[in-house]
Design goal:
The protein is about 30% helix and about 30% strand. With about 200 residues, it is of the alpha+beta class. Strands 1-2-4-3 form a 4-stranded mixed sheet, covered by helices on one side. Strands 5-6-10-7 form a 4-stranded mixed sheet, covered by helices on one side. Helix 1 links the parallel strand 3 and strand 4. Helix 1 runs parallel beside helix 4 and helix 2 runs parallel beside helix 3. The chain is globular, with a radius of gyration of 16 Å. The N and C termini lie far apart (about 35 Å).
């Protein structure tokens, strides 16, 4: 069965349409109005081998908060919908990612229970037009709307990849935790996944 989902959301502040295909080829068609945010979402699709169409109209004349947070909500809903009943997939995933001087860790449980633990500090207020304080808000929105436990921790930091690393480690889980793996129970899924089969957003800012 094709694992694909389309989710739309319209509020006073944003109008968002996302289509996500988990078993894709890395194609992305993105328009959020925030260039660096598009860059991160492009890496999500390209290195995770997802197909992602994401169109966002937000109140950027105010700031980027609603655009980034609401996109996280809709993307999380699309992940949850595309994964489906979770039969035969890895429930747990973890990854440690080096990116030059930056090292980040991520662990995820597709439990249906939302929780975010985010331990990352940024040394600049903005990267391009993306406010770095919104990175946590994005992951919070994704974790709660997808119904996942999500732990992201920066083990060592620096300028190169300081945004990319947290994005990467989170998205790496999605590639792995959503995979059907040999030896899994067709009814209950796998107990654990190491993340070895995952590819993700491996580039610097």
């Amino acid at each position: 069965m094709e694992r694909i989902a389309t989710v739309t959301r319209a509020t006073k502040e944003t109008d968002i349409a996302v289509t996500l295909k988990l078993d894709g080829s890395g194609k992305a068609d993105l328009s959020t109005g925030i260039g660096f945010f598009d860059h991160m979402l492009d890496g999500f699709a390209r290195h995770g081998f997802f197909d992602l169409d994401c169109k966002v109209k937000g109140d950027l004349q105010v700031d980027g908060h609603h655009t980034v947070e609401d996109t996280g909500i809709v993307l999380g809903e699309a992940i949850k919908k595309a994964v489906g009943d979770k039969k035969g997939i890895n429930r747990y995933g973890y990854f440690i990612l080096p990116m030059d001087e930056v090292l980040a860790l991520c662990a995820v449980d597709l439990s249906g229970r939302p929780y975010l633990n985010f331990e990352c500090e940024f040394t600049v207020p903005k990267v391009g037009e993306l406010d770095t304080e919104l990175v946590k808000e994005f992951f919070y929105a994704v974790s709660y709307s997808a119904g996942m436990n999500l732990h992201i921790k920066m083990l060592s930091s620096g300028m190169g990849g300081i945004i990319s690393c947290p994005y990467t480690t989170d998205i790496l889980y999605t590639r792995h935790a959503g995979e059907h793996k040999g030896g899994c129970s067709p009814d209950y899924g796998c107990a654990q996944g190491s993340g070895y089969a995952v590819s993700g957003l491996c580039h610097t800012c």
